[in-house]
Write a structure and sequence with these properties.
Elements lengths: L9 H21 L6 H8 L3 H7 L3 H24 L5 H12 L4 H13 L1 H22 L6 H24 L5 H19 L2
Helix pairs in contact: 1-2, 1-4, 4-5, 4-6, 4-7, 5-9, 6-7, 7-8, 8-9
Protein name: TetR family transcriptional regulator
InterPro entries: Homeodomain-like_sf, HTH_TetR
Keywords: DNA-binding
């Protein structure tokens, strides 16, 4: 059965935001494992039919909630990086934000995308679309847009690798620390090259 969507009305948009906030909070606490429309409805204090009225599907709701968690993470990360004088320093300032709070939920999203790319690949693609502009904004202003994008893509891929390593090694930061030192040196050389 298809439900009428509430898009377009201010009241419908406000209700959709409210429901999304409640589901996002549930994800932040309980993670992505066993996510379902019924669990989301319970967290939002409503029924699955109401959720389907406001969202296209459980997958749509999940992707929007994960995107909202990422937006919070990005805002905290950019705030932490704002005072660092170098690109390497800004990236290093991001790291504690990337590994704290509900970061484990966002790491689960990467795992789901790897496990079932057909069903959950949008979770990883959405992450790239959200993180890349934030990382570009950390690059020196004098760099060309192409160079900023290339360096930001390298940083994103490297940090994702560090996160996976950290989560799969049982939390042992030794290899991540060594890798981070190498990344910092590479970014310092890149920035020194002008």
């Amino acid at each position: 059965m298809t439900y009428r969507r509430s898009a377009g009305s201010p009241r419908g948009d406000a209700r959709r935001r409210e429901l999304l906030d409640l589901v996002t909070e549930d994800l932040a606490v309980n993670g992505l494992v066993d996510f379902s429309l019924r669990r989301a409805a319970k967290a939002a204090g409503t029924t699955h039919k109401v959720l389907l009225y406001h969202f296209e599907s459980a997958e749509d709701l999940l992707q929007r909630a994960v995107a909202q968690l990422r937006e919070r993470r990005i805002a905290r990360g950019l705030g932490a990086a704002a005072e660092a004088p170098t690109l390497a320093g800004r990236v290093r300032a991001l790291w504690p934000v990337l590994t704290s709070g509900e970061s484990w939920v966002l790491d689960q999203a990467i795992g789901l995308a790897i496990y079932d790319a057909d069903r959950h690949g949008g979770l990883a693609r959405g992450g790239t679309q959200q993180y890349l502009p934030a990382l570009v904004s950390l690059c020196p202003p004098a760099w060309s847009p192409e160079r900023k994008t290339e360096v930001a893509a390298m940083i994103l891929a490297t940090l994702r690798g560090f996160l996976i390593d950290l989560r799969t090694s049982g939390g042992d930061p030794v290899s991540v620390d060594v890798g981070f030192a190498a990344l910092s040196r590479a970014l310092e050389r890149e920035e020194a090259a002008g």
